[in-house]
């Protein structure tokens, strides 16, 4: 099944922009792409959510949401406070599987980190990946503190028997500090997974044309891009 689940090590790590970069790169390679937001929080009924932002940056993707809730909270909490039914992992998996019958690639973007709860029963994006038997790409931050959250996420994935193809740094700074530069070597070490890209900070502010043109340069060949991991690490080595 051509599904890739995309999670982050936390909030605001660049997950949506990385999803857009993966989508843009796949589109450039001639693949049809759908983007499914498992649970959109913090937006009103008529506001653009994360899936719409991916479409704006990447271009011709099919977008879908399983549910959205107005308050910027974890999906389970947001659903409860809104008095609405929560998102269930099975619903997300079913929606992704349907999209996969019509597209070459389906990107399932989570909300926050891997274990953010969808419902009172404790359903999470990890459960969705398990139901789909889909690999999980982890978006991480570059700086101090990222090693712990990245290792915890990788350990949880492996404890569930889920595939972790690699990591993408969601917002690589223009002037990386010592911690960020050291983390280029340490992130693969603590996670047991390769670096598969680094998206520049501010990439989401580029024009859609510029974003689509540059996206393949931010992602490694396993994600259909041209990013050279070894050259990038060597260039920034402390």
Q: What can you tell me about this protein's structure?
A:
This protein is an alpha/beta fold and 238 residues long. Helices cover 39% and strands 19% of the residues. The chain has helices spanning 15-28, 50-58, 75-82, 89-100, 125-132, 146-159, 178-191, 208-214, 229-236, and strands spanning 3-8, 33-37, 40-41, 62-65, 68-69, 105-113, 136-140, 167-172, 195-200. The termini are far apart.
The share of residues in helices is: 25-40%
**What is the radius of gyration computed over CA atoms, rounded to a whole number of angstroms?**
17 Å
Poorly predicted sequence stretches spanning 5 or more consecutive residues: none
Order of strands across the widest beta sheet? 4-2-6-1-7-8-9
Number of helices: 9
Q: What is the count of β-strands?
A: 9
| Helix/strand structural class | alpha/beta
Shape: globular
Give structural attributes.
two-stranded parallel ribbon; 9 strands; 238 residues
Secondary-structure blueprint of this entry?
Blueprint: E1 3-8, H1 15-28, E2 33-37, E3 40-41, H2 50-58, E4 62-65, E5 68-69, H3 75-82, H4 89-100, E6 105-113, H5 125-132, E7 136-140, H6 146-159, E8 167-172, H7 178-191, E9 195-200, H8 208-214, H9 229-236
Parallel strand pairs: 1-6, 1-7, 2-4, 2-6, 3-5, 7-8, 8-9
Helix pairs in contact: 1-2, 4-5, 6-7
Could you write a compact summary of the structure shown?
This protein has helices at residues 15-28, 50-58, 75-82, 89-100, 125-132, 146-159, 178-191, 208-214, 229-236, and strands at residues 3-8, 33-37, 40-41, 62-65, 68-69, 105-113, 136-140, 167-172, 195-200. It is α/β, with parallel strands linked by helices.
């Amino acid at each position: 099944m051509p599904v890739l689940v995309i999670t982050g090590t936390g909030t605001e790590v660049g997950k949506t922009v990385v999803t857009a970069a993966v989508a843009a790169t796949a589109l450039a390679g001639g693949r049809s792409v759908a983007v499914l937001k498992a649970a959109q929080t913090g937006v009103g009924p008529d506001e653009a959510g994360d899936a719409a932002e991916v479409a704006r940056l990447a271009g011709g993707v099919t977008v879908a949401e399983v549910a959205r809730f107005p308050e910027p909270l974890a999906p389970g909490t947001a659903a409860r406070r809104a008095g609405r039914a929560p998102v269930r992992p099975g619903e997300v998996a079913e929606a992704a599987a349907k999209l996969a019958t019509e597209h070459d690639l389906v990107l399932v973007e989570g909300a926050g980190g891997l274990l953010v709860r969808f419902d009172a029963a404790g359903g999470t994006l990890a459960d969705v990946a398990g139901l789909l038997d889909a690999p999980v790409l982890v978006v991480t931050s570059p700086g101090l503190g990222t090693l712990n959250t990245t290792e915890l996420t990788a350990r949880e994935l492996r404890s569930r028997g889920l595939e972790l193809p690699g990591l993408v740094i969601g917002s690589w700074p223009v002037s990386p500090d010592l911690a960020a530069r050291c983390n280029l070597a340490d992130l693969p070490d603590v996670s047991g997974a390769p670096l598969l890209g680094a998206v520049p900070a501010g990439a989401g502010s580029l024009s859609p044309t510029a974003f689509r043109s540059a996206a393949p340069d931010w992602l490694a060949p396993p994600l259909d891009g041209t990013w050279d991991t070894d050259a990038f690490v060597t260039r920034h080595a402390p």
